[in-house]
Amino acid sequence: MKKNQLKFAAAAAAVTIFSFAKPSLAAVRCETQYGGGEVCIRTGKLQVDKKVWNPVKNEFVDNINVADDFRFKSGDEVRFKIIVKNVGDDTLENVNVKDFLPTNYLFFTGETPSEFNFRYLNPGVSQEMEVKARVKAESQLPKNTTVCVLNTAEAKSGDENDKDTAQLCIGPKVLGVSTLPKTGSFGILLSVAAAFVSGFIGFILIRFNRKP
């Protein structure tokens, strides 16, 4: 009898604990991958989402791949967006966010900070930041080569931390190619035809003048 009472008490205690325990939010970040589809990973309570501005699509995207047929050139401005969110149940304190550039290819313009600090970040609240960078001079880039690089954003708050990346591609500038006007070929043909006609008429006149 006592054993049954103990089992019942243990079961009741377990139910009580689970009833009053705080629900844990599932922290998942999903990103579009090259070739289509999404890849989702679990994160902690602090979640970072990094995006890059695509001038062709006129929007922030997760990545710019080679297949997107867009390359940043030397001197181009590159805009990044960092979204930091508290997906947990408790307020996060002293949240530090840093942006890390691929320094061989990009540099910060100085128009925006590259590091941000938030005293508090309440549950369910997110903060958005924009970081501006610029592609280095052509003399500092690989010649006649397209490279795809990653920009990284990292956030920390106590034991909580997360990071995310955004990819972009950098290519060489395309030099202008000299071309003939659209009417150039047609004009050459007309000149040749006119010369032929003039020569033929001259030949006829000479033959006509030689007749007795």
Helix and strand layout, with pairings?
Layout (H helix, E strand, L loop, with lengths): L1 H19 L7 E5 L5 E5 L3 E9 L4 E3 L15 E10 L5 E9 L5 E3 L6 E7 L4 E10 L11 E11 L2 E11 L13 H27 L2
Antiparallel strand pairs: 1-2, 3-4, 3-5, 5-9, 6-8, 6-10, 7-9, 10-11
Account of the 3D structure:
The structure is a single chain. The protein has a domain at 44-170: Immunoglobulin-like. The chain has helices at residues 2-20, 184-210; strands at residues 28-32, 38-42, 46-54, 59-61, 77-86, 92-100, 106-108, 115-121, 126-135, 147-157, 160-170. The N and C termini lie far apart (151 Å). A hairpin with a 2-residue loop joins strand 10 (147-157) and strand 11. It is 22% helix and 39% strand. The longest helix is centred in the last third of the chain and has 27 residues, at 184-210. The strands form 3 sheets. The chain has a 5-stranded antiparallel β-sheet, with no helix packed on it. It has a 4-stranded antiparallel β-sheet with strand order 8-6-10-11, with no helix packed on it. Strands 1-2 form a two-stranded antiparallel ribbon. By secondary structure, the protein is of the alpha+beta class. The chain contains 2 helices and 11 strands.
CATH superfamily of the domain at 44-170: Immunoglobulins
Question: Within the largest sheet, what's the order of strands?
Answer: 4-3-5-9-7
Helical residue percent?
10-25%
Number of DSSP-assigned strands: 11
Terminal CA distance: 151 Å
Q: What characterizes the major β-sheet?
A: 5 strands, antiparallel
User: What's the overall average pLDDT, rounded?
Assistant: 79
Class of the domain at 44-170, according to the CATH hierarchy?
Mainly Beta
CATH architecture descriptor of the domain at 44-170: Sandwich
